[in-house]
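STRUCTURE:
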């Protein structure tokens, strides 16, 4: 409701500005007054117009207020001038509460296909805690975008890019062949043995990857030879159609299936799994190279350190001026796209991939085959062969969001620069690098996980994890420990419940704790994960908000009513009490509950889900303040009791919705 009034108000002011002053402003700022007694919205528009109109801001504000009050907007009680020229808007509280109770709200959404790429774990070992931040950010963002019963949303495709021919997969293949002496037949037998022994392939590869990483450098005399083995293995993977490539495919596909199972535990699903092997075999890069050469973005370097390479101008660099009479030398800062030995760099393949995403790679598309069936939809995987009947296609994006950590800023910027260089400026403008910082562990958390932590490391704010060194937290192990810790609390509080129900509740709490912890920090913040902090029922945590929802539900249950009935009662209530000083406390709760669409739009516009996390927490705080101040079930006045019950109901509804967009469920009890 709040966003609906805001939109109507801004449209009305723009019309007044055009009619009265012949002025159009690209944007109108909207603020909230510091005190609710001053109103619910404040506009500094008069300050923006003062210089242009050569009038004092207060004079302009007075003129605008007169126009707005002459023909009041629905839901607006008054418009007043405050301070040096602010427009303070006061809402009709009773009318607003009825609209909020009736679930009137602005829509969020529009035309166009949004492609969200997230997770993108190398399929060479188990997912770890760092991957979870990526996946949870991406999954939450697609929830904000996707159509649902609350909003029109956007058409969305969720992709999980699978680098099944990269160096990390090559390392595992090297480990299998040279540390364990396995050929293709032996690898097939190994996969069967692991299944029969209930040993997870992603855990097996986790240990193998750490071992082979150490093996490369263990013997200085063998360093060059072992690096050559790695290079030859990588080339075999890229070439395809050989035993080495088939081993890589068997391992990476098996690990990928485990990754999907891990993510599904957190409610994370995908629509399409594009694989790098198909980008190579379907010659996406060849088509991209021809396009880049034709557009003058790619050129052959004939001198300097990059001689013989195909390069492009690096994003963010300016060509140095050549002194008069001198010949410009090679651009040593240029980005290598194709090495002198003919191999394509990561950035080159990524440029081809993103040209396909935008539908800018003529005549190129993947084949699509079903790979995994979720309860509500099919997850497709790329193939070099023909597509299955009725298969979708995903290379048609109007906007792209890539959830990739901040260490990939340079490659991402170079992809965008390549798009601009080829003249695809609209695509470049609609390309968002959804970057984020790393996840580390607090020393306390590392100790809880069984790691030996030195006295020096115990004094640090956080400890960095490293899969290559074998120091890290597997995602499933982390979730298992969180569930166990939550279940200990649930078992103690609700011994009367069946075991299966207690496990379900503990899982909801654990998933909520983990997802909220990953989302509460802005993306440019390093996270130091800690079990005790994440699972706390106090402070800014997922369980705190879940507990507030349970409290609200308990009020309704004990009052022998439900959310829908409590909210429907508002339509016939006398709500004049909301205009009193005591009623302002209740009004603040309703007002906070009316702002969800405003937060959804803000999160989408800034690609920052942390704003919604903060909003959910503030709603829970607002409700808990209400809960401690008003004894709803002891209220004897029928009108006031109905208003209090409706306040608990609307708070529960909006807290639950906000958590839903964060991918968090509210358990029945805590």
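SEQUENCE:
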């Amino acid at each position: 409701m709040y966003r609906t009034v805001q939109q109507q108000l801004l449209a009305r002011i723009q019309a007044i500005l055009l009619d009265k002053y012949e002025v159009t402003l690209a944007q109108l700022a909207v603020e909230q007054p510091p005190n609710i007694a001053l109103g619910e919205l404040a506009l500094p528009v008069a300050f923006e117009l003062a210089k242009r109109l050569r009038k004092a801001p207060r004079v302009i504000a007075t003129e605008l207020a007169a126009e707005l009050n002459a023909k009041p907007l629905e839901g607006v009680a008054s418009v007043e001038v405050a301070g040096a020229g602010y427009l303070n808007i006061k809402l009709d509280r009773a009318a607003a509460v009825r609209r909020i109770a009736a679930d009137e709200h602005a829509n969020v959404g529009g035309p166009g296909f949004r492609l969200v790429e997230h997770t993108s774990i190398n399929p060479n070992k188990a997912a770890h805690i760092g991957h979870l931040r990526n996946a949870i950010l991406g999954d939450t963002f697609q929830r904000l975008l996707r159509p649902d019963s609350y909003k029109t949303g956007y058409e969305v495709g969720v992709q999980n890019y699978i680098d099944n021919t990269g160096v990390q997969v090559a390392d595992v293949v090297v480990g299998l062949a040279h540390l364990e002496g396995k050929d293709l037949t032996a690898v097939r037998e190994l996969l069967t043995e692991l299944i029969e022994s209930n040993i997870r392939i992603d855990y097996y590869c986790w240990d193998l990857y750490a071992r082979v990483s150490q093996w490369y450098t263990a013997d200085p005399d063998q360093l060059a030879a072992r690096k050559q083995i790695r290079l030859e293995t990588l080339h075999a993977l890229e070439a395809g159609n050989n035993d080495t490539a088939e081993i890589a495919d068997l391992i990476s596909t098996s690990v990928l299936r485990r990754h999907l199972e891990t993510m599904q535990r957190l409610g994370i699903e995908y629509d399409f799994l594009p694989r790098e092997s198909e980008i190579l075999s379907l010659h996406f890069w060849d088509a991209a190279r021809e396009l880049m050469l034709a557009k003058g973005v790619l050129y052959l370097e004939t001198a300097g350190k990059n001689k013989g390479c195909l390069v492009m101008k690096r994003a963010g660099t300016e060509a140095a001026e050549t002194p008069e009479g001198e010949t410009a030398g090679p651009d040593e800062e240029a980005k290598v796209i194709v090495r002198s030995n003919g191999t394509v760099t990561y950035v080159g393949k990524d440029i081809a991939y993103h040209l396909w995403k935008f539908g800018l790679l003529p005549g190129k598309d993947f084949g699509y085959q079903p790979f995994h069936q979720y309860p509500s939809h099919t997850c497709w995987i790329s193939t070099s062969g023909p597509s299955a009947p009725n298969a979708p296609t995903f290379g048609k994006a109007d906007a792209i969001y890539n959830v990739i950590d901040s260490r990939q800023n340079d490659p991402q910027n170079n992809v965008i620069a390549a798009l601009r260089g080829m003249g695809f400026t609209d695509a470049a403008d609609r390309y968002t690098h959804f970057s984020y910082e790393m996840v580390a562990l607090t020393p306390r958390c590392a100790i809880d996980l069984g790691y030996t932590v030195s006295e020096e490391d115990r004094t640090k704010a956080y400890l960095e994890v490293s899969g290559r060194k074998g120091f890290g937290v597997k995602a499933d192990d982390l979730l298992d420990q969180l569930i166990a810790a939550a279940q200990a609390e649930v078992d103690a509080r609700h011994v009367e419940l069946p075991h299966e129900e207690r496990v379900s509740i503990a899982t909801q709490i654990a998933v909520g704790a983990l997802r909220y912890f990953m989302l509460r920090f802005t993306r440019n913040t390093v996270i130091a994960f800690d079990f005790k902090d994440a699972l706390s029922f106090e402070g800014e945590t997922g369980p705190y908000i879940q507990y507030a929802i349970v409290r609200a539900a308990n009020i309704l249950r004990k009052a022998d009513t439900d959310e829908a009935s409590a909210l429907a009662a508002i339509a016939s209530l006398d709500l004049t009490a909301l205009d009193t000083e005591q009623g302002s406390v209740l009004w603040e709760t309703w007002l906070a509950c009316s702002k969800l669409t405003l937060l959804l739009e803000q999160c989408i516009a800034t690609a920052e889900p942390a704003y919604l996390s903060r909003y959910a927490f503030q709603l829970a705080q607002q409700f808990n303040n209400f809960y401690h101040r008003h004894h709803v079930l002891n209220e004897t006045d029928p009108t006031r009791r109905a208003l209090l019950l409706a306040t608990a109901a609307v708070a529960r509804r909006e807290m639950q919705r906000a958590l839903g967009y964060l991918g968090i469920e509210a358990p029945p009890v805590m």
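REMARK: The longest strand covers residues 109-117.
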